[in-house]
Specification:
It comes from Microvirga guangxiensis. By secondary structure, the chain is an all-alpha fold. The chain contains 14 helices and two strands. The chain has two domains: 184 residues, Growth Hormone, Chain: A (Up-down Bundle); 188 residues, MFS general substrate transporter like domains (Growth Hormone, Chain: A, Up-down Bundle). It is globular and about 65 Å long.
């Protein structure tokens, strides 16, 4: 098989050039920021919950697993359903689940209530990501990598802001101050209601025009299945490693370097800020040089830095965490757009599958690594996960399915 050929071909009825719908792309990115800001509060307050509820690392991992599983298991189902029946205002409903989960976490007086709050926030995420990813693609004007990066950077920026706000609000004022962030959820619901109105009008406009011929993949089903499996393994590598940082980096810094809780949150913010910056890079570069090359560099290229991290002092730990976050984050946008090009016409299903897998691997990683940390030490965890990016070697077996831009 000639792997240099485009993966699919289509014969559009009308040859119009669409432009990027910047206001909608900006709105969905800001909504992603607000959504993930709320979600990132959970791992950011783990040190507080660990002390208040006397949790061990295994119980902390189970909290993350509960959140990630409710998000990951539902997302492919939501995406598949909305591929057939798009739901423009489901984004508002999903944010409503997140709001309820947020309030539950703020008032929880027992570990089961913490699990319930985490599950509700995960349910909100399961609705938000597939449909918002579809909106980003619809507003892309054909620049899918750029649109996905803009969308993703909002989420990663929100994830970075969560620990920073936790350090200055939740740590000083306690668990109940989480409820103050309900204002953030309400703001997101207002923005998403207006996005839903545009989405509904866009769907009506598309239905009123002649449809383009369906895109047809020239790769065999077996080749597509193998490629999707490889992409899923790459996401596993990326998110399993990222889980070690997002869930346990604060504990690692406090244990190895004796930094304070507040300072550890700032170091986590720096890492997550680098993740946000890296997300911006991956999509546009993938549009130009090809997403396969971006995946190569992002996953495998980070290996030397992850191997060095467990043996670095505090200064170089901070520097290496920035490099790792910057490089590793550029992978997801490229992987997601590459996957949608492998399976054209199934944006919701693919987005749900890969966002769901991303959350699921993060949750599984947090649970497994928490148990491992209890049995050994948090330092041992970082030595073991440092080898995960070697899975990036599998990128060699991905077909070249895209034409690059000049």
């Amino acid at each position: 098989m000639d792997t240099k050929s485009p993966a699919f071909a289509a014969a559009p009825v009308r040859a119009s050039v669409e432009r990027v719908t910047i206001p909608i792309l900006a709105a969905i990115s800001v909504s992603h920021l607000l959504n993930d800001l709320i979600q990132s509060l959970l791992p950011a307050i783990y040190p507080i919950l660990k002390e208040n509820f006397r949790l061990d690392f295994g119980q902390i991992g189970l909290l993350t697993l509960t959140f990630q599983l409710t998000a990951s298991l539902l997302q492919p189902l939501v995406g598949t359903f909305t591929d057939k029946r798009p739901q423009p205002f489901s984004l508002v409903i999903g944010m409503g689940f997140t709001l309820i989960g947020l309030l539950t976490l703020s008032q929880a007086s027992s570990y089961p209530l913490l699990l319930l709050g985490a599950a509700l926030v995960g349910m909100g995420s399961s609705v938000f990501h597939p449909e918002s990813s579809r909106v980003a693609r619809m507003a892309s004007g054909g620049r899918h990598g750029l649109a996905q990066s803009v969308f993703q950077v909002g989420g990663n920026a929100g994830s970075a802001l969560g620990p920073l706000l936790a350090a200055f609000i939740v740590v000083p004022f306690g668990q109940t101050s989480i409820a103050w962030f309900s204002v953030v959820a309400l703001l997101a619901m207002i923005i998403l209601f207006n996005v839903g109105r545009w989405y509904r009008a866009k769907l009506a406009d598309l239905r009123s025009k002649p449809k383009a011929a369906a895109a047809v993949s020239i790769l065999s089903r077996k080749r597509i299945a193998v490629s999707i499996t490889i992409l899923m393994l790459l996401v596993f590598s990326k998110n399993f490693y990222t889980a070690s940082i997002s869930s346990y980096f604060t504990f690692y810094l406090m244990s190895k370097f004796q930094v304070s809780v507040q300072d550890s949150q700032l170091y986590l913010f720096v890492f997550l800020g680098a993740v946000a910056a890296g997300t911006v890079i991956g999509g546009p570069i993938g549009d130009r040089i090809g997403r396969r090359y971006v995946i190569w560099i992002s996953i495998l290229g980070v290996l030397p830095f992850t191997l060095m991290l467990p043996y670095a002092n505090l200064f170089w730990t901070a520097v290496l965490s920035v490099v790792i976050g910057l490089v590793l984050a550029s992978a997801f946008s490229a992987i997601l757009v590459y996957a949608t090009e492998l399976v054209p016409g199934r944006v919701g299903m693919i987005a749900g599958l890969f966002f769901g897998l991303s959350f699921g691997m993060g949750g599984l990683g947090a649970a497994v690594l928490g148990q491992l940390a209890d049995m050994t030490s948090i330092e041992t965890v970082y030595k073991i996960v440092s080898f995960l990016p070697a899975i990036g070697l599998l990128t060699y077996f991905l077909p070249k399915i895209e034409k690059t831009r000049a």
